[in-house]
Specification:
Helices cover 22% and strands 34% of the residues. It is of the alpha+beta class. The strands form two sheets. Strands 1, 2, 3, 4, 5, 6, 7, 8, 9, 10, 11, 14, 15 and 16 form a 14-stranded mixed beta sheet that branches. The chain has a two-stranded antiparallel sheet with strand order 12-13.
Length: 295
């Protein structure tokens, strides 16, 4: 088994605002439906209003109300924008899903907002402030009973944009290896998300474009179809495929653990010939994570 080559480079990361939210429901299927709907269309702030994803699944013994639960994270550039996203996503996607309740899962944030109280106005005067599960909740009457939401949600400053690019000589084998990398990340139980579909991005971007109306464009250096026609390709001659994994985590230590879990899982995988990253001379962010430091 050949050892994958870890390129001596770094991932250029940056600070963003985030919240951690727990959605519980009568069973795991319902909790996942609500969670997936709530984090929808939130892959990249290039064109999405937020970045969001599922962090982990909790057993009933791990949740405040003893039901199946899913922790999600929602990320934006500012606390005011995060407040907007929490109000919109939790009210339109999580509240409307059958049997759900919602809890704050961030206890050391530097800012908080009464998201639950604001959403409770949907109760049209019939809502009630209650104390349950050792928390201050709002009980909103809905058509299958009551919707419970914690009154206050915290916001923190996390680190976004941890990038790994996995290169291989076969599209299918590279894809399957990348999937295994995502599974390794999920098993690591770090407080991180991968916002792209299934955690994998096939359309990695770079800063800038030949078109003045675009701030980002395809990362041509990692496109196999271009490697013969451009002078600055970063792909080996045999490479047929590259996939990007982008990770946001609650702090730099958790981000390093998340990236390290993938590198550890794939560094000797013959399906992956190179593990690298992308950076832009500080134009993207000031936080640098060297890949070789993660071994």
């Amino acid at each position: 088994m050949s050892q994958a080559k870890i390129v001596d480079t770094f991932s250029e990361c940056f600070k963003m605002r985030y919240s951690r939210i727990l959605i519980t429901a009568a069973d795991l299927e319902l909790a996942l439906i609500a969670a997936n709907n709530t984090v929808g269309f939130a892959t990249s702030i290039i064109m999405c209003s937020a970045e969001a994803g599922i962090e982990k699944i909790l057993k009933p013994s791990e949740t405040p109300d003893g039901r199946d639960g899913v922790i999600i994270q929602i990320w934006t550039k500012s606390s005011s924008k995060l407040k907007e996203e929490l109000l919109a996503r939790l009210s339109q996607s999580a509240l409307t899903a059958p049997t759900t309740s919602i809890f704050n899962m961030l206890n050391d944030g530097d800012k908080s907002e009464p998201i639950g109280k604001l959403i409770s106005y949907f109760g049209d005067g019939h809502q009630k402030k209650v104390s349950q599960f050792g928390k201050t909740m709002w009980d909103i009457p809905v058509m299958d009973g009551s919707f419970l939401i914690e009154e206050t949600f915290q916001m923190g400053k996390g680190v976004a944009g941890g990038v790994l690019i996995l290169i291989g000589n076969s599209e299918i084998e590279t894809l399957n290896a990348t999937r295994d990398g995502i599974k390794a990340l999920q098993k690591s139980q770090v407080k991180a998300i991968t916002a792209f579909p299934g955690g994998i991005c096939r359309a990695g971007s770079k800063i800038g474009s030949k078109y003045s109306f675009l701030n980002e464009s395809t990362n041509h250096k990692f496109c196999p179809s271009l490697k013969e026609s451009i002078k600055d390709s970063n792909l080996p001659a045999e490479a047929k495929c590259a996939y990007e994994i982008v990770i946001n985590a609650i702090n730099i230590d958790e981000l390093k653990k998340a990236m390290g879990s993938i590198i550890t899982a794939l560094k000797e995988d013959p399906r992956i010939t190179k593990i690298t990253s992308s950076n832009y001379e500080g134009k993207l962010g000031s936080i640098n994570i060297n890949l070789k430091d993660l071994l």
